[in-house]
């Protein structure tokens, strides 16, 4: 039985009896800052940031523990008490019994609707909740229908517990901070204005207003109010059995003032009479504004105080987000196509939420990390490329002159903060992602000149690649690198990239593999900083060196000068002696020499370097690295199996291989060996066979991150403290599984790549096991349940792989290339598969026609047309739409048809 049912081409879906599944939640947000999570029973929370929670912060376990949720109560004929959200003692007690109410959840991008029918009370409710795209307000539109055959009276109550302070106060002075509340009842609702922001390091005056307002469908304000929790639940009462509702407490009329206790956005509406089939409507507005912008509250009330206005706002919100996620897929599998709408939407959620602020993401204080800045750009380059150039350039302002980067990232683009706590963290993979993203940008746009864009460098007390502190640096110095003349130094994006890649090349351990430092992409490999080495990312960096060399060649061909002006100090990193490449101590000395020159201020002097010579230098280093990796790190197994070792532990021992406790294999090393080109075709075939044998479990999403090491490896990282199958220790970790697929596609192993993608999609869509709303989660745990939903970089990689590899729609120096790698099983009954995608400011609807049902590898491209214009087909394998032709097209959707023969 299918639990999730898609209802339109935008990915909207329904789920019956959603309350019967634990831990479900849905994200709501606006681009103005409000971020919410909402469960089928209207639990969850709402906040602006770590310091500004409108509703009580929740973690995943609170979703079934807490009853202090958004609620709406109805009393029919003074006897039948009904919660429109299903959160009452009677309704919860009826779950899993014949008395359980019928319920249906319907949801789409940034909106959720829950409907329930109580046959015993003959009442039906519908609650739609959403956040308008540009306002900091949750809107709840509620309707209550009389389903009896007689006229009935109805008295309704809104019940919103207002938390109104920092998330830190959940366990830090919660009761004390409630004493700071000042509560005001006005005609439209209840307003909470904390007198102070409680912080023992320095209290601050209160500066925010939290509110819950409401009107009925006729525009009438509430008649009575319950401004505190105690007023509403009553002595001995509870949120599931509030005495104000059950015993008709009188409450207070407006106006009223009070404070010093937990606030409650609860109020009662005037009793109405409903004829058979008639319904009553109500609107609740929940939000927060800065004291300086309190006039926005009146504006919001006027904008959304009628059902017609709310309905219009909902439709505008739907249209806005549907346009944002403007990628559409058409294959044989309709459910997969709808799933891809959600995968395409997830990167927007990551931009808004960062890596925090959803129930499973209960860590950090908001914002994104360095890796996120760059990987989130991957999806934007495919959806909103015009907005990405400035973002990329500003992001380079976080690179230090020693090749490391800032790890505290402020709000907005390019805002990096010094770590004044002196906590040094160096993730050795961080230099990898900027180049990957910049290369995709250049390919999609043809803008090779971005490499010449001048950008400052980040500066704080961390020097010598995080191994020492700059005693001369202080807060007055600022956060930008200065020259010997105390001028802000700026260098080209190319210079930033060279420093990142070259410095990493020399930071090696005893096996001449890049040091692991505090971790790589896998944050849980955090206990091998002395002797740990990352073979996986050494492979990745080898590929990066080749990619950067190719970009430099492209820049050279488009340049009149054929040279680059670079910081003089870089020259020491451009050593071209292969004998030194093999000498660990000499490489470490070169890095130490460079880093010491950049310890405080730098000379600021530049030298001219030949672009072609730079490209050759990088290619030489990459070639040496690849040969070294192939000869030293390949693990030959039995029966045509084999794989690359991924790591060295803090004892300096290879982490993988054949051990008495069993086979130890990790997916990460295989991903980057394949993607970079370190793995040759014969290697890949053995890797695939080994991964299928040791890591693959279709029923839980496909490829696990590692086999069970049967050891608490304190010489590697905290991941081995997790139960096997949880998170980084052996789960199907979507990000790496998708990158494995991407790597296989790039190298022509299309069936194998699709197998990895399809396993993830099938697991996500199998609600019986995954228990998640549509989308790809961070990982699938040992029993197949999807975990840490929505905020995962895997979505960007999944979407990018489907667009640029499976459908083969990608840029090449700004031209549009169509090189499909679709399998026969992906075409519909008519032999067609299509994709709608923006490119170069235009919108394209691209259809591949495979009338003979051929598989990739057996077909070629016979012809291609953009409208009536025939496109050139190169070597029968890909069609080309030149940038000049795209620029001449009008602003509309253009149909491209590609015949596969």
Would you mind describing this structure in some detail?
It comes from Petralouisia muris. This is Cellobiose phosphorylase. With 901 residues, this protein is an alpha+beta fold. 29% of the residues lie in helices and 25% in strands. It is globular and about 90 Å long.
Q: Tags for this entry?
A:
901 residues, alpha+beta, Beta-galactosidase, Chain A, domain 5, Maltose phosphorylase, domain 3, eleven-stranded antiparallel beta sheet, six-stranded antiparallel beta sheet, 23 helices, Cellobiose phosphorylase
Percent in helix: 25-40%
User: How much strand?
Assistant: 25-35%
**Structural class by helix and strand composition:** alpha+beta
CATH structural fold name of the domain at 4-324 = Beta-galactosidase, Chain A, domain 5
| Number of beta-strand segments | 52
Count of separate DSSP helical elements: 23
Low-confidence stretches: none
Task: Briefly say what this structure is.
It comes from Petralouisia muris. The protein is an alpha+beta fold.
Reconstruct the topology from this structure:
Elements: E1 4-6, E2 13-16, E3 26-29, E4 35-38, E5 44-49, E6 52-53, H1 62-65, E7 71-76, E8 80-83, H2 89-93, E9 102-108, E10 111-118, E11 123-130, E12 137-146, E13 152-162, H3 174-178, E14 182-185, E15 189-192, E16 196-197, E17 204-205, E18 208-216, E19 224-228, H4 229-233, H5 243-246, E20 256-259, E21 263-268, E22 272-274, E23 279-290, H6 295-303, H7 307-324, E24 328-330, H8 334-353, H9 370-383, H10 388-395, E25 408-409, E26 416-417, H11 432-445, E27 454-456, E28 462-463, E29 468-469, E30 490-492, H12 493-506, E31 533-534, H13 535-558, E32 563-567, H14 578-581, H15 584-597, E33 606-610, H16 611-633, E34 634-636, E35 642-644, E36 647-648, E37 657-659, E38 662-664, H17 667-676, H18 681-694, E39 696-697, E40 702-703, E41 732-733, H19 734-746, H20 750-765, H21 767-770, E42 779-780, E43 786-787, H22 794-806, E44 809-812, E45 815-818, E46 832-839, E47 842-849, E48 861-866, E49 869-870, E50 872-874, E51 878-881, H23 883-887, E52 893-900
Parallel strand pairs: 47-52
Antiparallel strand pairs: 1-2, 2-9, 3-4, 4-5, 5-6, 7-8, 7-13, 9-10, 10-11, 11-12, 12-23, 13-21, 13-22, 14-15, 14-20, 15-18, 16-17, 18-23, 19-21, 24-46, 25-26, 27-30, 28-29, 31-36, 32-33, 34-35, 37-38, 39-40, 41-42, 42-43, 44-45, 45-51, 46-47, 48-49, 48-52, 50-51
